[in-house]
Design a protein that fits this description.
Blueprint lengths: L6 H22 L13 H13 L18 H11 L5 H4 L6 H11 L2 H12 L5 E4 L17 E5 L2 E12 L6 E7 L8 E7 L5 E6 L11 E12 L3 E2 L5 H35 L3 E2 L2 E2 L4 H29 L5 H26 L1 H4 L5 H8 L9 H15 L7 E4 L2 E6 L1
Parallel strand pairs: 1-4
Antiparallel strand pairs: 2-3, 3-7, 4-5, 5-8, 6-7, 9-10, 11-12
Helix pairs in contact: 1-3, 3-7, 3-8, 5-6, 5-7, 7-8, 7-9, 8-9, 9-11, 9-12
């Protein structure tokens, strides 16, 4: 097994690190860098995005022919982690949710015409996007089979009716993907559709208040009351909505992990800098055994998350669905993020609880990680099913044949 990265990936990572260290981190300490929802201010964001594009660090997950960086998923793991050492990082590089997951899905499954109309403007940073799947109870949450939003065929259009909520970025989005029920079939009953924010027949009911800082466009509750969608805005085929969702969420869950690992790294960097300078009783905190135990455990938990993330990324690059691997990475990264930030706050004392460091921002943001894209308990069920169905084969190493993924078990 080779855990090294190639020279081109190392070079891109260093360029991102330089941009983050020299430009983004200093801006985090300035109050006027933020909007009213504690995210980066739009005017500043536009300036920074232009700089990222000039440096060739724009939309690195997208193909080069569409203006991206052409990175593999394993390369993305390296670079996304580096980006999110700044709380501003991912959105500056056009690698933030939900646009990131939507771009990856559209790049994989959209028709050439759909890519030109719906994908390219997102890649170019001209519009933002949202993915509308989750519904208020008793509708679909982690279980898409409970979908209540419907798409009914009327003449030559599909008419959407229903309600969605916690739709990230909806208030700022122009391009939407909505999942709706087109039949009662258990596996082929859902379909995916594209629509524009200016289309009539839908509205934002409210921007849902949350405990942490928000992505641009918030997390919204939206209602469909007769939105009409033509056939050329059907994504994939009728009944392929569940498949589209699985394609999107697989990689999107893992890119969350990549970004969370970067944020956890930043928290540990802050903690190490503090304990290496703060003295109590004439002794540096870093020299105290109890402090070393806290740091050691946090570093170990973070590295476990990083390794699980990279393993799942490698599997995806080889064509594997990597469902249990992604679930394990998602559990480990979301839970280690929260623990690492908590440790960093504890080691900072009262200063960590204040707004003099970004740690309290990170702490409120981190709590959602164990919920978004499936709660930790849901992902533990995915892992358990893999164990129950595969038994000891779950721990067999995957093999390669002639340089390509063979999918065989030893």
């Amino acid at each position: 097994m080779d855990f090294s990265i190639d020279s081109s990936t190392r070079e891109v990572r260093q360029q991102i690190r330089t941009f983050v260290n020299e430009i983004l981190l200093p801006l985090e300490a300035k109050a006027n860098s933020y909007d009213e929802h504690e995210n980066i201010a739009e005017v500043l964001l536009a300036e920074l995005r232009a700089q990222a594009r000039t440096r060739g660090l724009w939309a690195l997950q997208m193909p080069r022919e569409h203006g991206g960086g052409g990175l593999s998923i394993a390369q993305m793991a390296v670079c996304y982690e580096e980006m999110n050492r700044s709380i501003f990082g991912p959105v500056v590089f056009n690698s933030a949710a939900p646009d990131d997951g939507n771009m990856i899905l559209l790049n994989k499954v959209a028709t050439p015409a759909q890519k030109e109309r719906w994908l390219q403007p997102i890649i170019d940073g001209k519009v933002r996007s949202a993915f509308a799947m989750t519904e208020p109870a008793p509708g679909a949450g982690s279980d898409p089979s409970m979908m209540l939003t419907t798409a009914e065929r009327v003449g030559d259009k599909w008419v959407i009716r229903g309600r969605k909520w916690f739709i990230t970025g909806a208030e700022a989005a122009s391009h939407f993907i909505v999942i709706a029920r087109t039949s009662s079939d258990a596996r082929k009953g859902l379909s995916a559709f594209l629509f524009h924010a200016n289309d009539p027949g839908w509205r934002i009911v409210r921007r849902i208040p949350i405990m942490g800082p928000e992505e641009h466009g918030g997390h919204c509750e939206i209602e469909f009351d007769g939105l009409e969608i033509p056939d050329d805005q059907l994504l994939m085929g009728i009944g392929d909505g569940l498949k589209a969702t699985q394609i999107r969420l697989g990689t999107a869950r893992l890119t969350h992990c990549m970004r969370w690992n970067g944020m956890a790294r930043r928290a540990l960097e802050l903690a190490v800098a503090h304990v290496n300078t703060r003295k109590t009783g004439g002794q540096l905190l870093a020299e105290r055994e109890g402090v070393q135990w806290l740091l050691g455990e946090a570093a170990m938990k973070l590295d476990v998350a990083r390794l699980l993330t990279m393993r799942a990324a490698w599997y995806l690059d080889q064509g594997d669905f990597a469902r249990p691997e992604i679930s394990m990475a998602k559990i480990a990264s979301s839970e280690s993020l929260h623990q690492v930030i908590d440790t960093a706050i504890q080691l900072h004392g009262a200063k960590g609880y204040s707004k003099d460091t970004p740690l309290e921002w990170m702490y409120r943001y981190a709590r959602q990680a164990r919920l978004v894209d499936g709660a930790s308990e849901v992902h533990k069920m995915v892992v358990a099913r893999a164990l129950l169905e595969g038994g000891t084969d779950m721990w067999s190493w995957k093999t390669q044949s002639a340089g390509a993924y063979a999918g065989a078990k030893e």
